[in-house]
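Long-time lurker. I teach an intro course on protein structure, and each term I like to show students one example going from raw sequence to a predicted 3D structure in token notation. This year I'd like something fresh instead of my usual example. Would anyone be willing to generate the tokens for the chain below so I can use it in lecture? Attribution to the forum is fine with me.
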Amino acid sequence: MMPKPMTPNERTSIRIRDPIHGTIHLMRHETPLVDTAAYQRLRMIKQLGLADLAFPGATHTRYAHGLGTMHVASRMFQRVVGFYELDDATSTRLSTAVRLAALFHDLGHAPLSHTTEGFMPAVRSLELGVWQGGAPDRRASHEDYTLKLLLDSELTRAIDRHVTPRTGVTPADIATIVAGRAPSLELETRFVVGERDFLPVMRQCVSSELDADRMDYLLRDSYYAGVPYGRFDLEWILENLLPVEQNGAIHLGLHARASFGFEDFLLSRYHMFTSVYFHQIPIGYEVMLKRFFDEGTGELSVPSDVESYLAWDDAELWHALRKSKSPWARRVVERRAYRMVFEAKGFETDDDGRAQAERVHAALAAAGVHAIVHRVRGELSKYFKWTHNFSAKESDVPPLFIVDGGQSIPVEVYTPLYRRYAEGVHLFRVYAEPERLDEAKQVLKGLGTLASQRPAKV
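-- Reply from a regular --
Happy to contribute to a lecture. Here you go:
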């Protein structure tokens, strides 16, 4: 009796139990990549930075998030590519590239929070060559470190050894999807099958308006923070994905019957920003961290060397903070961060909000209370950079379409709620020294109408 062909699940070498998605499967050629120091480092990087100071359960890591993102991206791409008849080798190559791009999308993330990114070295020190994008004199970002780790590290050699011979996927293929750009025409065309270019939809599965990254972290962050706000109907969205072909390029589409599911997804993201990601307590500690870095004492620097960067994790940063004599570092370590005493919020850049915050700051200063004005800004839409006020402006972000009655309609045209929430969250906050909090409250009371309209809870 002939043995039955192995199913994809039977070919996996490891099954990971996950509280968000159930079982996550790793293929045999993927396991050695997860075992590299580059990916194992993410076990030591908390997904939400300092959020556990307000939400004690939020201690989950970018390691788990990467696995979850890979799982969702794989399901997204399999749904879309299922509309086409591809041979097994091509299907395996494309799906592997998407899975690994999703797995490694946060590989270069800095410890604790995005605050530390403002103190990374010049991007030229990473020696990315043709992969370096943007201004030549800019600071590096975690995306730049991700590219460096993909293209010039132990992980690069592991991909060459375990993945390329089996699937044809190279480190440069993965980097192309993660970066959203390719430095050569040869790389750009590696995802063209027949006359169809699958690169746009592959990018969208990893990073777009409706991507695996957001879909995993909303559910995961909500679960571990212990709040319901990030929940949405993942299964309904996945079941209603479909390809939209324009000029030979394959884009991500969503059937109109799932448009309410997409709007629920948008609202979930907005509510997670306002309730968790921008919670006043973790942001207060980020303000202290920023002051510590701004001192420029040289106690701490972000390494540009790949091997040294692999040791740059949450534990390393906490160790440096505990050793430091900086008063700002001491406030972080001893849980004595400044407290928020005022907040003005809006969807657009709010000059009025800034003016109100500065007035509160001036009043506190006059009373001898040291305070800091801090602006918090989060973009809810990756399209907003090119559709501000929905003007016709070209974007390098592949468009998302709603498919209704055979027509493919851009999401920003189809969904009114998208217009409402696309511009992001803008907050102007005033943080005051906790030792003089009672005096700060009295100052706010003295400001009358201004403070009573949008006071902070202290």
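Some talking points for your students: Confidence is low (pLDDT under 50) at residues 1-7, 385-395, 451-458. Residues 177 and 203 are 5 Å apart (CA to CA).
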